[in-house]
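Page 47, continued from p. 46.
Same chain as before, 234 aa.
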Amino acid sequence: MTKDAITEEYLQITATVREYVEEQLQLGLFEAEVPESEQQSQYADLDLAALDADAQGCIKCGLHQGRNTVVFGVGNPNADLMFVGEAPGADEDKQGEPFVGRAGQLLTKIIEAMQLTRDDVYIANVLKCRPPGNRNPEPDEVETCSPYLLRQIELIQPKVIVTLGNFSTKMLLGTKTGITALRGKFHEYAFAEKEGHAPVVMPTYHPAYLLRNPNGKRDVWEDMQQVMTYLEQN
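Result:
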């Protein structure tokens, strides 16, 4: 077998394995690694602006090599409602703001249907840098980057966190269970302190999933109605 043929066969095997892993992640059979509890206080001395500045220069994992911008988060730093997704895409990587592509436009419509604006809520992702080709986050990337998100939550102190899709849901709930089984119900935030503020978490489908499966919009809207009711009562 020639060198070129061996290379081509290797690339085909790699692509097949990657497709399989991504399939299993979507089905909820694999999970991203939950960060160690002590990492929650890694940035305890930083306020939101200082945390953002630190993230902008982050080179803690390999994702910094291919990014255009760090996508930290956007919105009201005192928001009662926070949306957390997976990772920036191509549009977000260019503009430096989460959820600005097609999926982001749909999220904006959902927020507006709740009689809110993007300025009323806070929007962030588990990862602050775009994975190459919009692939799924790797467990070590989640472990390295998630302390930024945990500190954001600690500073913003939302009453409700809406997790969008499997990765943010599994990380913030500390679970292996997939999104389909978890959505529609409030859950305890896995990193809440024993005393003090503890947001509730409402898992729901990622807007990118809704673009592929429009029938899921009804489920998401039912989830958001529960969120609205909770915010009215608390």
